[in-house]
C-alpha cells in the first residue's frame, strides 16, 4: 500500500510538472507512461491481495462505512434541496404538502437521506464528499443545465462515487475527477441508474463489480 501511494504521488507530480512546461518531449511522454503503468500494476496487485483477504479472512477494512437506513418509520419521504440561497421561485413546482429540507452541500443532504428520498441540486460547484458511500435507494437530480451542476472529486481520494444501494438514480449532473488514478464511479452492489450525466474522469472510468449492475442513458464519459 505504501509503495502504491508513493508511486501515485510521484506520477501526479510528474504529470503536473510536464504540463506546466508546455508540450512534453518524447522522453517525458515515455517516462509518464512508464510511471502510469507502474501505478496501474501496483493497483492491480492491491486488488488481488484484497480479494484474497476477503476470501480467507473476511474484509480487512470496510469499503462502505454507512449502513442502509431503509425507509422512515412513519413512511414519508423528503425532498432535499441543495442550494446556497433558497428563493420562492424554486418552490413553485412543489405540492403544498411536500416535505422539504434545504442544505448547503450534497454531503449534508446525503447524510439525512432515507429510502425513497429525492435530492435536488441547483447550479453550483460542490465537493464530492459523501458520494463515496451511496447506500440508500434514492434519486439525486440536478436542477438546471447539466454543465452548471458540478460535483468535484476530493483530490487524491481513491473513491469518488461508490454505489452500494439496491437502486440509486443519478440524473443531469456533471462529475469532475482530477489528481486521481482510480475510476470515477464504482457500483459495489445493487443497481445504479445514470441519466444525462457527464463524467470527466481519470483512471479506469466506470467499474461494476460482480453481482451489481448499471444502466446509463444519455451520458458522456471523457478522460
TrEMBL record:
SUPFAM superfamilies: Pectin lyase-like. Signal peptide: none annotated. InterPro entries: Pectin_lyas_fold, Pectin_lyase_fold/virulence, SHCBP1-like. It comes from the Eukaryota. Gene3D superfamilies: Single-stranded right-handed beta-helix, Pectin lyase-like (2.160.20.10). This is Right handed beta helix domain-containing protein. It comes from Ciona intestinalis (Transparent sea squirt). The lineage of its organism: Eukaryota, Metazoa, Chordata, Tunicata, Ascidiacea.
Amino acid at each position: 500500500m505504501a509503495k502504491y501511494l508513493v508511486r501515485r504521488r510521484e506520477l501526479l507530480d510528474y504529470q503536473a510538472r510536464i504540463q506546466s512546461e508546455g508540450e512534453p518531449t518524447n522522453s517525458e511522454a515515455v517516462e509518464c507512461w512508464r510511471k502510469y503503468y507502474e501505478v496501474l500494476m501496483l493497483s492491480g496487485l492491491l486488488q488481488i491481495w484484497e480479494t484474497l483477504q476477503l476470501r480467507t479472512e473476511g474484509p480487512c477494512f470496510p469499503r462502505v462505512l454507512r449502513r442502509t437506513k431503509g425507509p422512515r418509520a412513519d413512511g414519508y419521504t423528503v425532498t432535499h434541496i441543495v442550494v446556497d440561497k433558497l428563493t420562492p421561485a424554486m418552490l413553485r413546482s412543489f405540492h403544498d404538502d411536500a416535505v422539504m429540507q434545504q442544505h448547503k452541500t450534497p454531503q449534508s443532504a446525503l447524510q439525512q437521506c432515507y429510502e425513497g428520498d429525492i435530492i435536488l441540486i441547483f447550479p453550483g460547484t460542490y465537493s464530492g464528499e459523501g458520494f463515496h458511500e451511496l447506500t440508500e435507494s434514492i434519486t439525486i437530480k440536478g436542477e438546471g443545465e447539466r454543465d452548471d451542476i458540478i460535483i468535484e472529486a476530493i483530490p487524491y481520494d481513491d473513491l469518488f462515487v461508490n454505489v452500494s444501494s439496491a437502486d440509486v438514480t443519478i440524473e443531469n449532473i456533471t462529475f469532475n475527477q482530477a489528481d486521481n488514478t482510480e475510476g470515477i464511479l464504482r457500483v459495489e452492489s445493487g443497481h445504479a441508474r445514470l441519466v444525462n450525466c457527464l463524467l470527466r474522469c481519470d483512471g479506469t472510468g466506470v467499474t461494476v463489480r460482480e453481482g451489481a449492475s448499471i444502466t446509463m442513458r444519455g451520458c458522456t464519459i471523457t478522460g
